[in-house]
Design goal:
Length: 209
């Protein structure tokens, strides 16, 4: 049965964060709002949860999931970041952006681009997600909560529970989250390359020397 927590958007209740983390540590998939659109999240090492998310969204194994990190020090464990990239990330995080970066050996091969050895990472500004990441003490994997055949991501908790009943273990209801995904920026070249325009503004994006 799918549980539902109502969490304060600005000051998430520690008790509910702990309960949500307990669910994640048991292999759960959690639906929640972010500083962009709603997402499905789960623990990095939970292969069964990854497979179930792919079934929910009808994704093949070439679709890359996003690694959600608490801060840049956590990003640097999973992505090879040079000085220019670090300065850029420091300017544009936290926020509604996903950055494509070269992966380190810490990242399981199944999460990488099949030919480029890159992955998508982001540092969310959402107090709810930041609270979960801090309580859990490790990154989460995530993907947009958009179901097959839908034009937009889901954003109503009642509809999410109705359509995903028993397919996700927890829905976190919070007065935040929209229907526009993150802006995706590829940082593997000499200059930032915007590959998807989302809710994050892109004016002034340059890699400083």
């Amino acid at each position: 049965m799918t549980q539902r927590f109502t969490v304060h958007p600005d000051n998430p209740q520690p008790r509910l964060l702990r309960q949500a983390v307990d669910c994640l540590q048991s292999g759960a998939i959690v639906a929640l709002p972010t500083d962009a659109c709603w997402a499905l999240v789960w623990r990095l090492g939970e292969r069964d949860a990854l497979d179930r998310v792919r079934q929910i969204r009808a994704l093949d194994d070439r679709h890359l999931m996003t690694l959600l990190c608490r801060d840049l020090s956590q990003v640097s464990v999973y992505a090879a970041v040079n000085t220019r990239q670090f300065r850029f990330l420091k300017e544009w995080t936290p926020g509604p952006y996903t950055f494509v970066l070269p992966a380190t050996r810490e990242v399981p091969r199944r999460l990488l681009h099949p030919s480029r050895r890159t992955l998508g990472l982001r540092v969310p500004a959402s107090p709810l997600l930041q609270g979960l990441l801090e309580t859990l003490g490790e990154p989460l994997l995530g993907t947009t909560l958009q179901l097959p055949g839908d034009d937009l991501p889901l954003s109503d908790p009642d509809e999410i529970i109705e359509r995903l009943s028993r397919r996700v273990e927890l829905v976190i209801d919070s007065a935040s989250g929209g229907i526009e995904p993150t802006t995706v920026i590829d940082l593997t070249g000499d200059e930032p390359l915007v590959t998807r325009v989302g809710c994050g503004p892109i004016d002034g994006m340059v890699l400083a020397g």
